[in-house]
Design a protein that fits this description.
globular, 2 domains, 11 helices, nine-stranded mixed sheet, alpha/beta, 471 residues, Alkaline Phosphatase, subunit A
């Protein structure tokens, strides 16, 4: 060993070369750490395991589309039309006025190489069945809109819990620091309202950002106060810096304050959104062909088509979870009567935009790592209300997934012969959530948050991943 006291300069540099490398590497790590810290709480987070999907879009059909009139044909229902119910009704129903069996007024046809049947309500979506996994055995617990909406969005129909978009944000963060991680376009304000996109006890940055609401045309939907008519950007920046400095002094005295820190982060995000958000909502840069693909050139499909096109623009800019909502305060999908008129109107408004969205994602190479989820809060009964309506049915209904690591061209699970109860490979709402999180690389049992002395999760104490639908 060389005595350090007698080392030449050459010997000193030679023996400490590894040390210099270590110092340089430490400096790089320190820079990365500060960079992540500068991004704030929305910085991208690693998944629990390799993900098949990077992002989610949830297409919510408010009111409850009828499974036996859309994606779950029932020949026995056609055969026994008008006959008394040949099975027991659930112990709890939304209405006691369920009469005889009611066949579907629409015909089903087989589509694609998979030959999956889809009704005449969705001729354009049907062209994409080879990319879709139709979940025919979904079931929930609540036959009322309010409880069922909360169950679908938060996993609980009785308590205020974080929404699924908030859980995804909490688990993965976002890939665009100038935009929220979770956006909901034209959400319904009824049946739970903000709780359906709220963060509850999760950190404030997990909250969904609403753009408009269901009573506003999507062409008029804006984030509130996205522009400041009184202050320019430089003045706003100085104002925010002053507020941040004052509150940092306060935090240095009182310590950690999640609510205050969340508010400061929201101020910063809102400042950055002033530039990013209007650019995304400005569709004028999209080609005429793209706008036609989404149905924006048609008065019937324009409103939902705008939602879908905005959703694609958010997704491609790194927003993690986007929800679009088809809701009509007068009709919705809630046909207790006038089933034919109501479902015809609703499907005509969404069929082309959804098909265009799927086509556009696929052409851009985004469908592979974008999970598309479609459905309502429950389905409808195969029995009649009056002469031409169906009641609420949470006991067996259909949702579908596409892209994002699911097998296309398959139907998973089944309802009974008449379409009332989930019967085979039953998939509870908790299972839908568990499967969605799994595709995002998140273990639903490990994605927890401690609150009030308990570890909470989206799937509560339930949830099973439907591994048979994974590609």
């Amino acid at each position: 060993m060389i005595n350090p006291a007698f080392q030449t300069r050459r010997q000193l540099l030679k023996t400490t070369a590894v040390g210099f490398g270590h110092l340089a590497f430490s400096a790089l790590l320190n820079q990365d750490a500060h960079a992540d810290e500068a991004k704030g709480p929305l910085a991208p987070k690693p998944s629990h395991f390799p993900a098949k999907a990077k992002r989610v879009v949830f297409m919510f059909m408010t009111g409850g589309p009828s499974q036996v009139d859309t994606f779950d044909p029932k020949p026995l229902l056609d055969r026994d039309h008008g006959k008394p119910i040949p099975f027991d009704l659930p112990r709890v129903t939304f209405s006691s006025r369920q009469l005889n069996l009611l066949k579907s007024p629409w015909k089903f046809k087989n589509y694609g190489e998979s030959g999956l049947p889809v009704s005449d309500l969705f001729p354009k979506v049907a062209q994409h069945v080879d990319d879709m996994c139709i979940l025919r055995s979904v079931h929930g617990t609540n036959p009322a809109h309010g409880g069922a909406l909360l169950k679908l969005h938060t996993g609980s129909d009785q308590f205020i819990r974080p929404s699924m978009g908030s859980w995804v944000t909490y688990g993965l963060g976002t890939e665009n620091q100038n935009l929220p991680a979770f956006v909901t376009i034209c959400p319904t304000l009824a049946h739970g309202g903000v709780n359906n996109w709220g963060a509850a006890f999760l950190p404030a940055y997990c909250q969904g950002t609403p753009i408009g609401n269901a009573s506003i045309l999507s062409s008029n939907a804006q984030v509130k106060h996205i522009t400041n008519s009184r202050l320019d950007a430089t003045s706003q920046r100085r104002q925010l810096d002053l507020i941040a400095a004052m509150n940092r002094d306060h935090l240095a005295t009182v310590g950690h304050d999640q609510a205050l820190e969340g508010r400061l982060n929201s101020f910063e995000l809102a400042f950055r959104m002033q530039t990013a958000m209007p650019e995304i909502q400005d569709l004028s840069g999209e080609t005429a062909a793209t706008q036609k693909l989404y149905g924006i050139d048609n008065a019937v499909t324009e409103d939902f088509g705008r939602q879908c096109l905005m959703a694609r623009r958010f997704l491609e800019r790194g927003v993690r979870f986007v929800q679009v909502t088809h809701s009509d305060s007068e009709v919705q999908w809630d046909q207790h009567s006038n089933l034919y008129q109501g479902h015809t109107k609703n499907s005509s408004e969404v069929d082309a935009p959804i098909a265009g969205f799927l086509s556009d994602l696929k052409s851009r190479g985004m469908l592979e790592d974008t999970l598309v989820l479609w459905g309502g809060e429950f389905g409808r009964t195969p029995t009649a209300q009056g002469t031409d309506g169906r009641d609420h049915n949470p006991y067996g209904f259909t949702m579908w997934m596409a892209g994002g690591g699911v097998k296309g061209g398959m139907a998973y699970g089944a309802t009974d012969d008449y379409g009332y109860y989930a019967a085979e490979n039953k998939m509870h709402i908790h299972d839908v959530h568990a499967t969605m999180l799994h595709l995002l690389g998140l273990n639903h049992e490990a994605l927890t948050y401690r609150y009030a002395g308990r570890d909470f999760r989206l799937t509560d104490v339930e949830g099973v991943v439907a591994k048979d639908i994974l590609a």
